[in-house]
Structure prediction request, 498 residues.
Amino acid sequence: MKTLGHWIGGKPVESVSGSFGPVFDPATGAQPTRVSLASAEEVDAAVAAAREALVSWSRSSLAARTSFLFAYRALLHERRDELAALITAEHGKVHSDALGEVARGLEIVELACGIPEKLKGELSTQVSTRVDVSSIRQPVGVVAGITPFNFPAMVPMWMFPLAVACGNTFVLKPSEKDPSAAFRLAELAAEAGLPDGVLNVVNGDRVAVDRILEHPDVAAVSFVGSTPIARYIQSQAVAHGKRVQALGGAKNHMLVLPDADLDFAADNAVNAAYGSAGERCMAVSVVVAVGETGDALVSKIADRAHALRIGPGTDPASEMGPLITREHRDTVAGYVSGARAQGAEVVVDGTELTVPGHEDGFYLGVSLLDRVRPEMDAYRDEIFGPVLCVVRAETYEEGLALINASKWGNGTAIFTRDGGAARRFQLEVEAGMVGVNVPIPVPVGHHSFGGWKDSLFGDLHIYGNDGIQFYTRGKVITTRWPDPADSGGINLGFPTSS
Prediction:
């Protein structure tokens, strides 16, 4: 069995904690790898390496940083199939989906390549007699990222490329369920020329997380994961004096108006609900069918759901792979039976699916639940699996009110041909990311990703300009070079601009 350790100070480090976690192949149920679970002392070693590297890296030129980033971008592009294969092997998503994940991560590396433009300061001359004022942004210091299992390459790439471009050093704690992609990202960063200690990877569980949150040398923490953990990350990080951005869970709604193209809406509902087995924080998990659209839309979604090909992610014919663990698969299946017991109509039941030749894999078929009510568990909870709920609403206003009543506000979408309705929706809906005839409105790299309400804890979204602001802090400098003829003198009054 392969053992995966840590990446500290520019080299692989074997664990000394003696604690390990299983890493499964979800397609087969086998355990080909075990991952080291870091002790507090091993986290300290990674932070110490980052702290030592910070001295020179924070003072490095923008040219030196961008030279690395351009080389890194080229290397990641060259090795994208290799990275996608690692994702498929440990997460289970199909290879094409894994390639898309790598591509979206590369967008942020490309954004980081343009960091000189983003870090330009400001200068105001002659704000007072012979007085100039300038503002600059400087790195925060040692920063950390705690990332989820569902995007083991993309979410780390949402964080550390921008952080190191801004002059910080980084400690990454990836999910212990599928850690190999993050470890490979660190190896490739070293190959591209990143100095030792600038990027470190510690694998682990809550022990590692808690040590990161309390460590006095960690200045900021980025997190993506579930809402309860995001809330915990924020409270603990703030209690220890750290800057924090913690992105939480979601229950993303797709509002379908009567004038929408129902075939187009059904295609997109299936793609957004069942892609990556529903293990996306931006997955559509609720369709709100307005007016008379419900019966026809449910029928069209069901026809497409029945036709989906589910199997191992390595099979080019597979459209959807397994879930991440056996336990998670069983939990998701429980929501389907629970919804039936609570009065929902189970239009498509995927809980009895078996994949021939892969009976021990963590597979679950897609499920479609109709006439779901807000008090049902399937509606109230973030299922994070291939289960799509359909809720009926009589009017646009009723559908909007339903969406806005959700405790989450990550992403949402409207499907319509009516530009006025779409404009109204994008202004009235309470969510951080809105799609108009786009079911998964993940912004491109030069915008920022983040939700509202219980989907975000902290003030700043991730990547884009918000990400650069998060990984830097502002400094304002007021300068006066007196004229030799100016004798100065004593003046105890408050300084004025004159």
